[in-house]
Amino acid sequence: MRKTAPAMVLIGLLAGYLLAQEKPAAQEKLATQEKADKLIGVLRAPAELVEYDPETFAVKQTIKVPSEAVEAPQSVAVNHQWQVLYQPDLELPLAETDVSTPQKIWLWNGKAAVELDSGVKYETAATGSNQAVTESAPRAFLSADGAHLYWFANSARRLQREGMDLSTATEWSGWRTDMSGGNREELGTIKLPECPCSAGACDETCPYGMAWAPEDGVATYFEMSQTVAGKAGTEYRASTLFREEGGKWTAVPITPPLRRVLDAAANGSVIVEAIPDTGCCGLSNQSDDSTIVHKGEAAITVFDERATYRNPDYDVSFFTSNAKLSADGAEIAMTIVSTGEASKAIQLTEDGQANPEESKQIRAALAELPAVEVKTVEEPSRRVAFVPHATLVGWLSQKEILIVQDHRLVVHNVTTGASRKSGIEVEDAPHVFLR
Question: pLDDT digit string (tens) for 294-305?
């Protein structure tokens, strides 16, 4: 029987109502699945990494780690395969203590704990009236698929006379191995210009390569920047994006060079960069700290210190200590910190003028820090959420972030503003891994 027009309207309204009821349920189901795919690990004293269920926060498993790893969480890597790597930070030039004892890498390969040779080398030989020092300090990174280790190393040859550096020739290289350190595959090599060490210390005037990789491990890209740790602050010489396509790694120069990479996505075509203050010599606020999302030709500013805090007269700097893109790349969450404290005196900058209103605004801002801010990745960027007294861990789902407040893990919904406290106490955000 043919339906009348009113009947058709009624059916349409009913279908719309049912669809409206199903949409939130579908979104909730998707969010639950996103969280189920996540991994939360917490480093705990004296020597363990505990995995928690991201939905219920129940303990799933615990592995023993070196006690040094708990004391230095920045030297610990964890991927989604629940593999864990701990390697002490070593930089060139190597110190005597770096080479007096064998340097080992501790690795939980997903089944057992093993130790690998780090490959640190230090050799000396007479060259006429000079001494030649040849040294190398590889650093290992986990892979996202759990099948490989990636290695990046500066290898330098320094000429010395009476303990003073004369010159250095440095080569940066990257390679890939299996999880035992065998079956080496070369990824790329960059020879850095030979450098005279006029100050008597090569690390103050000569560049070294510094690699960055996604926190879940290397998949199809990583980045390397040539930096000089000078007395007046770090100088950024050049940046290169290494990308795998069709089983072949290619090196693509990035211009201008990146400063501090905080996050990346889309095979390296989206990069989050923090531009630090140029302050030196005891001063911390000589320029504008900012955080930029590079998307193709676009450079979207998502944090601008001077525009937000209007603090040019006082020697207190505001900046982002970390930042994470949402899964769809539409939003970015950041932790905002400062060099100042609300309870302490604030000094004027070198050319600053006393400004009571500016000082009042700065102190009010300091009272909220550290804080987590979520903004849209668009031009102009707009604020989505702001959580005072919090530090970001990462995105738990498309609309939820995991933060640390009062040494406790908290889930915060950036859309509704609702927060859900867990019973998990942590030392700080760097001791938490969300993968």
Answer: 998 999 999 999
